[in-house]
Amino acid sequence: MNKVIITVALNGSLPTKEMNPHVPMTPRELGVTAAKCQESGAAIAHVHARDSDGHPTLDPEVFERIHAEISARTDLIVQISTGARAGTDTEERAEPVRRIRPEMASLTTGSMNFPNQVYSNSFEVVERLAAVMKDSGTKPEMEIFEAGMIENALLLVKGGLAEPPLHFDFVLGSRGSQPATARQLMFLSESIPGDATWTVAALGRWQLPMGILAIGMGGHVRVGLEDNLYYRYGEPASNEQLVARMTRISEESERGVATPDNARRMLNIQKVPQ
Ligand code: ZN
Q1: How many domains does the chain have?
Q2: Could you point out which of 19, 75, 146, 253 has its C-alpha 20 to 30 Å from the C-alpha of 68?
Q3: How confident is the model at residue 272 (pLDDT cuts 50, 70, 90)?
Q4: Which whole-number Å values give the CA distances from 31 to 18, 65, 105, 158, in the listed order?
């Protein structure tokens, strides 16, 4: 079976050190944590940026520093978030991708509710972000919060704004969108093109069981403090701990984990010379 690509979502926009002291906030902290995560078996680092007060920001210079810190210490594929929690202006969301031309970026292909915010991504916004990624040679990870978003991603291919094979991330268990159930994961994974790859990002206590299911089903796994702050009930996790647990399960399942270069080949990513 194909090797498991482990993505670590290091920080997100919302977690703070008060919630979990291991959340990396500064570019340097992100670089140091990323190195531990590569050591533990991760292939992709999904990152958000924070300003000096720890608030989410779209400042491209902060993203540049994060990209530099991670690339100096690791060979990980850096995946920049283009999510809207740090700001809703489309060009500001696109700017870090345009400037850095990272190997990957996240692309949510529709609108839904977050617990405290409407996450608005019109066709116009999605197409603009996809176009910038295409121009930058950046592979999108299609963030799927509802099944209809798969169809929206396929429309991007039809419109020449994304190139197959596509890579999907099924986000499960966020209040306001699809539930984290085996049936939902089965339905989503069977609803994408045959040449596409997929990973699962399940929130909170669902991160572990959905990750185990994905490993059994031939998919890939995202873990990390953006989605889940705990290793087990009441015990704060570190990113590298969550990665190491998925690595052990992947090894015991006879799949093994993908190195960053394995992942580049599997996702059809051309390595960007640093
Ligand atoms: Zn994210």
Answers
A1: 1
A2: 19
A3: low
A4: 20, 9, 17, 37
Q: Would you say residue 127 lies in a domain? A: yes
DSSP letters spanning 217-249? HT-EEEESTTT--EEETTEE--HHHHHHHHHHH
pLDDT (mean) for 83-98: 91
Domain with 233, as residue range(s), is 6-267
Helices (H), 49-103: 60-73, 90-100
Q: How far is the CA of 105 from the centre of ligand 1 (A)?
A: 10
- 129 found inside a domain: yes
How many A from CA of 256 to the centre of ligand 1? Answer: 25
Find out whether 214 and 221 touch, Cβ atoms under 8 Å: yes
Cα 107 to ligand 1 centroid, rounded to whole Å: 10
Q: Ligand 1 centroid vs 155 CA: distance in angstroms?
A: 23
Task: Check: CB of residue 41 under 8 Å from CB of residue 256.
Answer: no
